Amino acid sequence: MTQIIYDGTYEGWLTAVFEIYEYKLNDIVFAKKEASATLLFSNNHLVTTDIAKAKRVLEGLKPRLSSEGFEGIYKAFLSEVSQIEEIMFRFVQYVFSSSKNVEQDFGNSIVLDLKKATRLTRKEAHRMEAFVRFKLTKDQLYYGIIEPDCDVLPLIENHFKKRYADQRWLIYDAKRKYGIYYDLENVAVVELQFNSKFNSAQYLTEICDDQEEFFQSLWRKYFSSVNIESRKNMKLHVQHMPKRYWKHMIEKIPEIK
To answer: Three-state SS for 3?
Structure first.
């Protein structure tokens, strides 16, 4: 068995695919950044990300897939589901070995697994576009914190850039410890370490605009007023707005006293 050790980026994974074919590596398993201690007797192949090699793989895939299928591989990568790199690689092998488009061959378990991962990422990105709640700091920066199941920041940045083009904002993924920052012109990736008491009443008072709590209170009252108690259906509510998102949603957080 050969462990393919890459840097955890999509370009790094594409480079790894190129080198698997280049060096005719077999019985492979992927590892991010360092070798897995569970595979003591495997050979290790260290991949250095090479954009030229990555582009070669993409150029080989593009004519064999629809635009949706081509983008779907990247979305599957962002899903971070277990063994997704191996699933993606076996899908790529199937694509290259077939003379026709294989995207709809759901009788093949690899095609189906890749489709499920792609759908998961797409669904999570759509939810984040709806569930991000911004707060305003004293220096007029709108910030929102999310913890999505998938790494969706690369997919949602255009949505927020278009929707909030006249405001500076930061969306931070607390699970992956990075964010995207918009400065009224461009979106940049940033890495931050937030205060462990970031959501405490004292800390929010220190950094938030003087009117922020007032507007949050208005939003909670509006949310409460549009919910008709007699028609409440918590099962359906949780289905559309899972509880794992609630801690970063203003309407679900009790007012700070």
So the answer is: strand
